[in-house]
Design a protein that fits this description.
3 copies of one chain form a homotrimer.
Chain A (H helix, E strand, L loop, with lengths): L2 E2 L8 H13 L12 E6 L5 H12 L3 E6 H4 L3 E2 L12 E2 H11 L2 E5 L7 H6 L1 H10 L3 E3 L7 H14 L6 E6 L9 H15 L4 E5 L8 H4 L3 E3 L2 H4 L5 E5 L21 H4 L6 E3 L12 H4 L6 H6 L1 H17 L1
Parallel strand pairs in A: 1-7, 2-3, 2-6, 4-5, 6-7, 8-9, 8-11, 9-10, 11-12
Helix pairs in contact in A: 1-7, 1-14, 2-14, 4-6, 7-8, 7-14
């Protein structure tokens, strides 16, 4: 594996989930695989879960880890070619990426969208250039449009906790005070659509009008604007806010109450409730659910380690060849 | 040991000091104890000595260390329950602590008081909630009211450098330009009071009127407002500024000169001088003392490693059970 | 080796380059040399290449690494003696350095000049005091006047890529939008002058009038204000901006075009082009050169590891004695 950026980077989601669960059952079995290998984690935006879980996964595999918080260093990167660099950008991504590739065997990169210009964000220009110039395998720690380690984690968690062969999984939009990226729901949706193709889940998306995601990510999903109807018989609810894709980055007033709570939970098949965290309590998701028996959010966060570990394992194996 | 927050978390201060000195004599003897164990250090406030010495101690024990500088990430934590999180706090401590507990076998937390509301600070609400929700052993890296790794360090240092069986130890207030927490003197006092009970020291506190500490921490100490009288025959002077506990967080003009200098040192039994650092030279403590033969401040700072190491050792042993 | 601050800290530049190339050929041969040894990297200014490459080198030698970004912690250090510390400085360098020396076997320090007061910057007061007070070997990660790890890297790179026994190397001034320190060119110059003494290179410096470096660093170099003439027959061009030493820290308008491009490159002996990075594209150096076959900048950055590794190796060997 030379790149982990979208669901297309794995041939089969079932296979990668099973491989991750093997890592979870035996965390240190491959401790010699990463000996003398260095993982560099580059954060252009803050991170808690992703940094800790990926570091942990790398250490389980015997790797060294170096973390670069570029957001705090104010080391502004130039991404455009043909620009005379007489402004505020200090280094071009061509050099920055190539140099990091000199010091690291595998690189991870986090870069959020600006939510100003849809074409720019959805071009994934920065990420693609980083991959192109660094010369080593790259794992996405969340890009402008996707968060694949989170989505793999989510499928691992669903696989562990499902009660039926093909559980109904519903991605449910939730309210928030800020305009958030579509990366998590895009990514969750493309992974669930593929899981549906492989016969692992039945997948539905529920959101208010105006919040449809790009079709690129939702192909095969059942999409509804009716919250109560869509969550009927659900075995898993995946609660998440996102801003509009159509009116890019905008937030509209939603008159109905989309916060997930016990009353709505009662309509489901005793659904397990998931969220990628951080979660706004009693805004996106009720405290009673988060503190109750149906919440999987902490176990889900814990599984981030195994998603990262299987990806790093595959990349280390490809280096060894 | 599941918690290291106050002197009450050790059955005997003599025992823990002796165990720490064994670690110092043989730093790598227990290097296999921490294999595959991860220490997470969470800083809500800056740190130099605490971070480096605790990291070093963990590495001596063979642990992996992950550091989270949450103060710099601006990742504001919500601590109150029943709050609709539609403001500036991004994550509730319930989730944040629990998630860190998923990735780490032991957690360290630093959180300073705000010095605005005494009840809030002295409730240690944040710390207690972190301990409750994270699900793994927690070592205090300094809380609103205590700095136990510093106090254990100080008793180790006194044990190493004492000339008599039961030396006179005096905690002496000193001037400063800022309003500082009571955490270090509170903690030093509760550790010295317990050391006095165990027959290791005789303990006196000297401060100007208005600067008395909470009685919760000073039970058994000899307390005086007369600097020169109180330091007579002292074998150890522990110099430290703090703001008022009574008029919480306030700083009063003090007309007498409380800065420790050679003239005052002459009144003691050639006392060794200690300070937790950072120290304001020629304000709290004279440069001549700091650069002279009576200063223990650097050796004291060096001993921070062994305080941290014995605490981590005990926690690792309790995990192994 | 107790100090790596200037070219004077190595007896022979040829020897240290050869030793570095041995490390490069066999990166993990000395992995047991650094066991139980800790490197502390103290940054008073931001760093990308230096931090990553030095961390990597230390890990190759089996060392533990602790990084302190003091610039971000806002932990202002006092460097003057005899000052009553009642202002904004929190800790004196005497204590800060000594304490770090308690926790680390080797320390690295980065501290940029302020470019306000030449005497202050060129006294290297902070660096000298840090070395004096910390009590352990110190490697410069760039000081006010020198960047020796960069210069050693550059000589390693020239040695690897040279086509003739004694190649002509030219340090060429380049335009920039900011006033930059003289540390890199000073250091490059003192290393090249010594390399010239040892018969390894022929060394020329080309810069516009007003940009002469301090003679302390350029003794033996051929110095010219004529760009085109000076680069004739050059086998290596080392492109770098710096502010004025004479009119300290000032930047003058330069009417001629000093940006290095293919047209000027054609005047050389098909010179390899070097730059310490970060580089401003199409301002200091043309994009066509950076993306073309003559650029060594990425390989040069990669060699930072071996410069750091040979220095740490020598320091570890001196500790073992």
């Amino acid at each position: 594996m030379k790149k982990f950026f979208s669901v297309k980077d794995v041939a089969s989601v079932s296979e990668v989930v099973n491989e991750a669960l093997e890592q979870k059952a035996n965390p240190y079995a491959l401790e010699s695989l990463g000996k003398h290998k260095t993982l560099g984690l580059v954060f252009l935006n803050p991170s808690l879960r992703t940094r800790l879980s990926t570091q942990k996964a790398a250490m389980n595999l015997g790797m060294n880890v170096m973390v670069m918080n570029m957001d705090k260093d104010g080391w502004a990167l130039e991404t455009q070619d043909g620009v005379v660099m007489n402004g505020t950008t200090v280094e071009h991504i061509r050099e920055a990426a190539a140099v990091m590739g000199e010091y690291c065997d595998i690189l991870g990169l986090r870069s959020f969208p600006k939510l100003k210009d849809r074409e720019e964000d959805y071009s994934e220009d920065l990420f693609n250039k980083f991959i192109e110039y660094c010369g080593v395998p790259v794992v996405s720690l969340e890009s402008a449009t996707r968060h694949p380690l989170q989505s793999l984690t989510d499928l691992i968690t669903i696989t562990e906790y499902k009660n039926s062969k093909k559980p109904k999984v519903v991605l449910v939009w939730a309210p928030h005070v800020k305009a958030l990226p579509q990366a998590v729901p895009n990514s969750f949706s493309e992974w669930m659509c593929q899981a549906q193709v492989e016969g692992l889940v039945e997948f539905t998306i529920a959101h208010p009008k105006g919040y449809q995601l790009s079709e690129e990510f939702t192909n095969g999903a059942n999409i509804s604007n009716n919250l109560e109807e869509s969550i009927k018989d659900a075995e898993f609810l995946y609660v998440k806010n996102w801003s509009s894709y159509e009116q890019y980055g905008q937030v509209f007033p939603v008159t109905e109450n989309w916060m997930m709570d016990n009353q709505k939970l009662a309509l489901t098949n005793n659904a397990k409730v998931m969220h990628c965290l951080p979660v706004r309590r009693d805004l996106e998701l009720s405290a009673e659910i988060l503190d109750g028996p149906n919440s999987l959010v902490i176990k889900e966060a814990g599984n981030r380690v195994w998603a990262a570990q299987v990806v790093l394992k595959r990349m280390l194996e490809s280096l060894a060849k």
